[in-house]
Amino acid sequence: MRISKKVLWLGAMCAGLWNTSVGAMVPQESLTSGQDTVESIAQESDLMPSLPEVEEIGANPAVPEKLLKERFAKLEKSIPLTYHKSSHEFVEYFIYKKANFTRTMMERMPLYFPLFEKALAKHGLPTELKYLSMIESGLNPTVISHARAGGLWQFMPATGREFGLYQDKYIDERFEPAKATEAACLYLKQLYRIFGDWELALASYNTGPGNVKRAMRRSRGTTFWTIYNVLPRETRSYVPQYVAMNYMMNYGYDHGIFPESTEFQIPNDTIHIDGYIDLATFCNNASIDFEVLQKLNPQITKTVLPDQTRDFVLKVPSVQFTYLMSNRSSIMDSCTRRLLSSGVMVAKADSTKTDSLGGNGAFPYVLASNVQNADRDDSYEEDGEEDVVQRSRTKRVSYTVRRGDNVAGIARKYGVSVVSLRKWNRIRRNNIRKGQRLVIYREVKETVPATRIAVVKARPQYEEEQVAKQQRHTRKRYHTVQKGDTLWIISQRYGLEIGQLKKRNKIRGNSIKPGQKLIIST
After folding, report:
1. By the 8 A CB rule, do 380 and 308 touch?
2. Do the domains 477-522 and 380-456 match in fold?
3. What gap in Å lies between CA 49 and CA 10, rounded to an integer?
4. Which residue blocks in 337-486 are alpha helix, DSSP H?
5. Are 214 and 104 in contact (CB under 8 A)?
6. Radius of gyration of the chain (CA)
7. Tell me, what DSSP letter sits at residue 302?
């Protein structure tokens, strides 16, 4: 049959993500002071990867049109599976050109679909939305696109934070399947409330509701197919890809594509981690394959967790759990205690946290040192005996634009990057005007009191309780607000209710700013 070439978008997957390793990671980008909104995702479409070529079906397609129409009708539930020339092309693309990808999706279905189905049912969403993650990420929980969208559901960093996905340089919850799926359900629910149409909701998941609304105004159409010709090129292919993937997961066998090695969830138990831990050493001494630990905990982006870690739930393979419990003291001593620059070691303390066994199963390790520890979180402080140390903090500066000013000159004057200055002030194309007030965040050095905490020694339980009680009455704990922090993120980090945090700091509303010191406990 005669075949011509036609450029169509295959999302992040067909543009190269098949060749991305499961463990592929890139450094976390800097957090901005603004929150990404649902509308702002439309601005990111120009960052998508280069487009592949898809063969256009000829007069006599390999898969009959009549057969596809009949099968689409059988599969259709809540979300329309409209037959279109483009969806037919993608069916044949996934059968003949990308059969290996289709096979991989079949193999990974048992690993993630039970999780997706449970979350979708919880939110009252159509079960067939589970196929969307295949188009977004190829069911790879750690993949990152060229636009820096990450995880199974490809959240941009700020959008992920908007939907409750915590991110720092050690943890990125966009890669945690359960939490990312919960966030995706909330997002899809929001998009459906905006449009009341699932095809339009899917299109806006790709390009943002702003682009979809503009296409509707330009074409005066009210459905995906009536605005099809004025949508961005990649979005025109997005819904047909979804339709084709839905078809392939149900009828792939009829086209000779079968899974070869099906993946299932690794049986696991959980332990709670408080404080620093070297995960590579932990795995080595607990006889756990480090790659297995990474698969169970894809949200961990480093080989260590820092001192400020609080109640982190770490999944470990069940097959090693009994050995781990039997040798917990020696294992944890080897990977959590270490000499700091001050010559003081990390010391173990009691805890009431529980693990999978239901007992005192947490691994709480409190820092017995001063603030000179290199991995310490600068946003966390305690009052106690005072020494003096130098540290840096973020200072907010306001600048009023003068005649002759430009973005590059202002950035150079304050020692910040042009990109950061534009992000902080939502400047497009370097356009600024005389009299405009700009916000600038600078790193400044300051001399602050350094907390000295006594080394924790073994004491009877009663004495420990008395010491803890005295410490509660003599020390205040503070958190210094960092860029990207919200009251919700801070409350989750320290195990507080938002109302409690606001009451202690006499906060009205939900506004906080970088550099602000919040009382965590008194």
Report:
1. yes
2. yes
3. 10
4. 407-414, 418-425, 461-474
5. no
6. 26
7. S
CATH superfamily of domain region 477-522: LysM domain (3.10.350.10)
Architecture of domain 380-456: Roll (3.10)
Q: 245 by DSSP, 3-state: which?
A: helix
Please give the C-alpha separations between residue 486 and each of 260, 489, 510, 512, in angstroms, as whole numbers: 46, 5, 8, 7
User: Which residue is it, tokens 């309780």?
Assistant: 465
Query: Residue for token digits 């329309």?
Result: 80
pLDDT digits (tens, 9 = 90+) for 13-69: 343 333 333 333 333 333 222 333 223 333 333 323 333 445 455 556 789 999 999
Residue at 492: amino acid letter:
Q
Give the architecture (CATH level 2) of 5-21+63-255.
Answer: Orthogonal Bundle (1.10)
Provide the token pair at 215: 């296409």
Measured CA to CA, the distance from residue 27 to residue 44 in angstroms comes to 19
Residue 393 pLDDT class (50, 70, 90 cuts) = low
Asked whether 90 and 52 are in contact (CB, 8 A), the reply is: no
Cα gap 472→519, rounded to integer Å: 13
Compute CA distances 174 → 80, 133, 440, whole Å.
Answer: 29, 13, 28
Comparing CA positions, the residue from 257, 247, 242 lying closest to residue 10 is 242
Contact 388, 416 (CB under 8 A): no
Q: What gap in Å lies between CA 246 and CA 75, rounded to an integer? A: 8
Q: What is the dihedral of CA 212, 214, 219, 220, to 10 degrees?
A: 90
Dump pLDDT digits (tens) for 445-495: 665 554 433 333 344 444 445 545 554 444 577 888 887 778 877 777 777
Size of the chain in residues: 522
- Average pLDDT in the 181-201 region? 96
**Strand 53-55 vs strand 5-7: parallel, antiparallel, or unpaired?**
antiparallel
Nearest-angstrom CA–CA distance, 502 and 509: 9
CA separation for the pair 12, 33 (Å, rounded):
27
Query: Cα(181)–Cα(117) distance, rounded to whole angstroms?
Result: 10
Strand partners, 330: none
DSSP state of 345: B
Report pLDDT digits (tens) over 217-253: 999 999 999 999 999 999 999 999 999 999 999 999 9
| Distances 287 to 114, 290, 294, 324 between C-alpha atoms, Å | 29, 9, 14, 9
Contact 416, 410 (CB under 8 A): no
Backbone φ/ψ region at 52: left (φ over 0), alpha (ψ -120 to 50), beta: beta
| DSSP H/E element including 467 | helix 461-474
pLDDT digits (tens, 9 = 90+) for 288-344: 999 999 999 999 999 999 988 888 999 999 999 999 999 988 899 889 854 444 333
Residue ranges of domains in the chain: 5-21+63-255, 268-366, 380-456, 477-522
Residue 304: what residue type?
V
Query: Which structure tokens are listed for 368?
Result: 């017995």
Q: How far apart are CA 81 and CA 7, in angstroms?
A: 22
**Residues 512, 486: Cα–Cα separation, whole Å:** 7
